[in-house]
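Dear U.,

Please find below the material for section 3 of the report. The protein was modelled together with coenzyme A; I have listed the sequence and SMILES used, followed by the predicted complex structure.
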Amino acid sequence: MEKFRTINIDRKFIESNRDIVFNAWTSLWRDSFWEFYCDGDIDYDIPYLLGIVDHGVGYAVFDEDEIVALMFGSTEKFPKALSQEEVNFFKVVRNSYKKIAFLQELVVSPEYRGLGIGSMLCKRFIEYCSDKKFDAIILYTHIDSPSIWLYKQLGFDMVDTFYVTLDYPEGKIEPRSYFVKKIRS
Ligand SMILES: CC(C)(COP(=O)(O)OP(=O)(O)OC[C@H]1O[C@@H](n2cnc3c(N)ncnc32)[C@H](O)[C@@H]1OP(=O)(O)O)[C@@H](O)C(=O)NCCC(=O)NCCS
């Protein structure tokens, strides 16, 4: 683990390393569970990532010059709700906690999994949120995602599971599990 360098990435970093970040982002997802969604190209691009870091944090893990993992978390903005059930879920969380962060994206290159990188990144985000006096962190993921093990180990409670219809790939129905980790009472 010591051989990997983790850095915080913000708007400035992304803008001056556009290609590196974009290529890492798309290839990490292409190598991951993108087959759940579609076989085509990934349209999440740099504006999407800038939108997250403008209201949150990003981390990149390097093995020498190569980015082998990325994580992004929002600390101000909730994601756009895609269904009435999601609207209700966000409402319930908002009624329960004042300051809520959202763990939005986490991906580790397949050859680097099982080394503790995903867990190290989540812990870093949890620590950041705790330092900033957040009350809870929420996240959701595909019900078959391997990350569920990791989130449970880190104290996230699965609150609900329901289906949403995605904007992209348009019309695709995704079964999602929703998690909350309470940081302060
Ligand atoms: C989920 C993911 C981020 C985990 O990253 P990682 O660096 O391999 O995770 P870690 O090495 O820190 O593992 C943490 C724990 O999760 C568990 N875990 C991770 N992947 C697992 C799997 N496929 N099955 C069972 N347990 C798993 C491990 O048991 C580990 O616990 P341990 O330390 O007691 O052994 C990585 O598999 C990934 O990028 N997957 C594809 C993208 C994705 O699903 N992202 C999350 C959606 S938002």
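For the text of the report, you could mention the following: The chain has six helices and seven strands.

Regards,
Y.
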